[in-house]
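We were asked to recover a plausible sequence for a given structure. The inputs and outputs are reproduced exactly as logged, with field labels preserved.

PROBLEM: sequence recovery
POSITIONS: 299
GIVEN STRUCTURE:
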């Protein structure tokens, strides 16, 4: 028998459905009901409703939630992408090294492909930066959510291209690689910007390096307790955060690889739905504000 949803979720869905049917089906009431349902569902999940909202000071709790959720998605995309195209599109260091190796042995086509992967990764970060800057200038509260929603749209396009990858491999394979690299660039830049560069979800080399550094400081024995010498202390919060990112990336990679083996490119539809769900609340808020301003201007 398939697993049943939690009773709390069923209770919320039943309550909101009855309330919606009893009320007049006006756009404002439907939007309020949707926002209320999303907010109550987020309270049941280990995700804060303000995860992608714009505010001045982000707490450690928000950064941890941002880290594990988006690192899981990044790991799933990266591992699932490798199962599809036999290359890791977020590994920029490896792509640059491969370009140098291929040029050294005279294989210009593969070298150009590796350089294109790096360029598309940077293009994804550039596009996200422009989109976030546009949202800030126009005082959108959902500028981060819009970036993730567009990323989800590209993931849906990638899933729809899965069938063509087998039919037209010579054309679809390079397009899939550059699209995956573009997605990874978008994904990493959103997380880097919203966390003020404290969290990166696709750069596990840096994460593993920071974990090693903090473990070295943690296990260092401060033999001399002189006041003139500052004691070596580890940043335990940073160590926990990076260990969480590494574990979430591994878990996402495992889920993405297993999911691709059983579902193929359909696995990206679930990941896209998760990103849209995260960005739904700030997008609904901006839509409500813009509609209110539009009504005031037409009076």
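RECOVERED SEQUENCE:
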């Amino acid at each position: 028998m398939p697993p049943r949803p939690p009773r709390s979720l069923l209770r919320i869905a039943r309550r909101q459905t009855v309330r919606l049917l009893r009320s007049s089906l006006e756009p404002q009431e439907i939007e309020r009901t949707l926002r209320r349902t999303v907010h109550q569902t987020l309270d049941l999940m280990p995700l804060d409703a303000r995860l992608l909202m714009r505010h001045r000071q982000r707490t450690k709790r928000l950064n941890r939630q941002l880290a594990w959720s988006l690192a899981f998605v990044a790991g799933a995309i990266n591992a699932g992408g490798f199962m599809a195209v036999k290359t890791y599109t977020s590994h920029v260091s490896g792509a640059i090294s491969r370009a140098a190796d291929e040029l050294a042995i005279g294989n210009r086509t593969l070298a150009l492909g590796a350089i294109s992967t790096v360029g598309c990764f940077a293009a994804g970060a550039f596009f996200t930066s422009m989109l976030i800057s546009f949202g800030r200038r126009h005082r959108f509260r959902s500028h981060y959510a819009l970036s993730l929603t567009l990323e989800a749209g590209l993931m849906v396009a990638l899933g729809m291209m899965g069938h063509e990858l087998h039919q037209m491999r010579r054309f679809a394979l390079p397009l899939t690689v550059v699209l995956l690299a573009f997605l990874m660039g978008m994904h990493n830049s959103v997380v880097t910007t919203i966390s003020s560069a404290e969290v990166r979800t696709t750069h596990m080399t840096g994460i593993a390096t920071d974990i090693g550094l903090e473990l070295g400081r943690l296990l260092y024995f401060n033999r001399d307790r002189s006041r003139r010498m500052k004691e070596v202390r580890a940043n335990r919060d940073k160590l926990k955060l990076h260990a969480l990112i590494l574990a979430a990336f591994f878990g996402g990679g495992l889920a993405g690889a297993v999911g691709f083996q059983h579902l193929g490119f359909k696995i990206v539809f679930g990941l896209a739905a998760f990103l849209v769900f995260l960005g739904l609340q700030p997008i609904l808020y901006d839509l409500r504000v813009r509609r209110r301003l539009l009504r005031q201007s037409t009076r």
